[in-house]
């Protein structure tokens, strides 16, 4: 049934969450928000940089102009990119590496569907720069998750219908996007028990069971 898999990147293939959190927290402190927590950061999963900033600014009493917002987002990204320099191919877990290679050998199309504009850089650092059949990221979409655009575009580019693809996600926004696009979803971490998640993934290797059993 599943001829293609569309993977979210952050929180699925690699763990960039702590870097996003650290970079956003530094921005928060600069504008006197001292109660930015991992829980707030969790709500930023899967949503674009500017929408993530809005989530952070909910905690401020001040109003910010569009220009100020762009400066803050840009500052965050500069800090975040410095932190991404810590990533290398050892950050790709054996579990993920084995699953990707096994699926590839079985002829399954493999795509990335990410909201991040840094997806290319992260894939490069993980040693996956040329691995995927298709990469659709924050640079090639107009609406970020929970809008299904990123996944629909990826499915179209690998030449498959949504019903033939599995979406792998760690974010509520991503499960919503997959569901809205007509995809079955596999959920990692916090979204394992989310009601709209089709398959909970306790560990990454279970993807192979799902794909080969269906
Ligand atoms: C991923 C992360 C989000 C982040 C978004 C944009 O979806 O889960 O937390 O806001 O990418 O990332 P970027 O690298 O473009 O700032
Ligand atoms: Mg994610």
From TrEMBL:
Cofactor note: Binds 2 magnesium ions per subunit.
Major enzyme class: isomerase
Pfam families: HAD_2
GO MF annotations in UniProt: beta-phosphoglucomutase activity; magnesium ion binding
Binding site residues for Mg(2+): 8, 10, 169-170
SUPFAM superfamilies hit by this protein: HAD-like
List of catalytic residues: 8, 10
Cofactor(s) it depends on: Mg(2+)
Ligand binding (substrate): 8-10, 24, 52, 76, 114-118, 145
Catalyzed reaction equations: beta-D-glucose 1-phosphate = beta-D-glucose 6-phosphate
Keywords: Carbohydrate metabolism, Isomerase, Magnesium, Metal-binding, Phosphoprotein
Record EC number: 5.4.2.6
Site (Important for catalytic activity and assists the phosphoryl transfer reaction to Asp8 by balancing charge and orienting the reacting groups): 114, 145
GO biological process, one term: carbohydrate metabolic process
Family: Belongs to the HAD-like hydrolase superfamily. CbbY/CbbZ/Gph/YieH family.
Record-given protein name: Beta-phosphoglucomutase
Species the sequence originates in: Alkalibaculum sporogenes
Highest classification ranks of the organism: Bacteria, Bacillati, Bacillota, Clostridia, Eubacteriales
């Amino acid at each position: 049934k599943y001829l293609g898999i569309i993977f979210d990147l952050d929180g699925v293939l690699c763990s960039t969450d702590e870097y996003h959190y650290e970079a956003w927290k530094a921005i928060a402190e600069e504008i006197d928000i001292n109660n930015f927590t991992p829980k707030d950061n969790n709500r930023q999963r899967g949503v674009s940089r500017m929408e993530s900033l809005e989530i952070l600014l909910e905690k401020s009493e001040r109003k910010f102009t569009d220009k100020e917002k762009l400066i803050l987002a840009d500052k965050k990204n500069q800090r975040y990119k410095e932190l991404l320099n810590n990533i290398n191919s050892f950050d790709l877990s054996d579990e993920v590496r084995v699953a990707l290679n096994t699926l590839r050998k079985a002829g399954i199309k493999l795509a990335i569907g990410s909201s991040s504009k840094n997806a290319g850089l992260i894939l490069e650092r993980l040693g996956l720069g040329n691995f995927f059949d298709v990469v659709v990221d924050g640079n090639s979409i107009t609406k970020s998750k929970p809008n299904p655009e990123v996944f629909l575009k990826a499915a179209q580019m690998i030449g498959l219908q949504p019903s033939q693809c599995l979406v792998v996600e760690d974010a509520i926004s991503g499960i919503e996007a997959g569901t809205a696009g007509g995809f079955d979803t596999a959920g990692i971490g916090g979204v394992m028990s989310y009601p709209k998640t089709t398959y909970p993934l306790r560990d990454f290797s279970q993807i192979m069971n799902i794909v080969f059993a269906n």
